[in-house]
Amino acid sequence: MFRLKHRLLVATKSFWETLLQWESAMAATWASRAHRRLMNLQWRVAPQPEHFDHHLDLHYQWLATRSSFWVERGVFGGLALRGGDVLELACGDGFNARNFYSLRSRRVIACDFDPAAIATARRKNHAPNVEFRLADIRDSMPDGTFDNIVWDAAIEHFTPAETAAILRNIKARLTEGGVLSGYTIVERADGEKSLSHHEYEFRDKTDLLEFLTPHFLHVRVFETKFPERHNLYFWASDHTIPFDPDWSAAISVTNTVAT
């Protein structure tokens, strides 16, 4: 019976593939339009939410705009992972905790002060080794020690004084060799805030570097530029950070060619 079914499937493969391609296209179109409507409601009708649901990127914005900066954040943060315990601060919808950190780490604790963000995270981005907690990192940052701490798309939501205090608490929670990684944006040329929730937007790479260097021996800040956004990424540690000469994930050699 199995062989008969297999022969029938082989004989009719072209028909079924055409049908499934049509079904997939219809499903993708429906999903894209549904997420576009959801984004318009959330972001064009006041009040704006404190967090962004990255399923809007996954199902709508990425294909519509071809802009990949939302994926950079998880990728660059993932370069610093050490395989142990991760603390994500101001995790928002939890997309990166689930899809970039959890499979390469023993455990992820992801926290946010916004109950709506935690509700979205638990509903859409749960995973067996990810725990979402409601916590304001200014006064109730989760205790413990962590091999990685991620502060992604959130440092701009705090005043300079709050940022300095949070960095001290981060430093106290990193294990030996632990790495802080994160992302933020450069302020707009017209001086207007990119989002009303932002407290301090950085002028450039040097401005961000000056916030981090009082707390860590090794800091790397780099940028990417898109038409709609100027991004800053950072790694900080008292030990090795990605792309240091002794970074265990890489090997390099400089060849000298005689002329």
UniProtKB/TrEMBL annotation:
<feature type="domain" description="Methyltransferase">
    <location>
        <begin position="86"/>
        <end position="178"/>
    </location>
</feature>
<keyword id="KW-0489">Methyltransferase</keyword>
<dbReference type="InterPro" id="IPR029063">
    <property type="entry name" value="SAM-dependent_MTases_sf"/>
</dbReference>
<keyword id="KW-0808">Transferase</keyword>
<protein>
    <submittedName>
        <fullName>Class I SAM-dependent methyltransferase</fullName>
    </submittedName>
</protein>
<dbReference type="GO" id="GO:0008168">
    <property type="term" value="F:methyltransferase activity"/>
</dbReference>
<dbReference type="GO" id="GO:0032259">
    <property type="term" value="P:methylation"/>
</dbReference>
<dbReference type="InterPro" id="IPR041698">
    <property type="entry name" value="Methyltransf_25"/>
</dbReference>
<dbReference type="Pfam" id="PF13649">
    <property type="entry name" value="Methyltransf_25"/>
</dbReference>
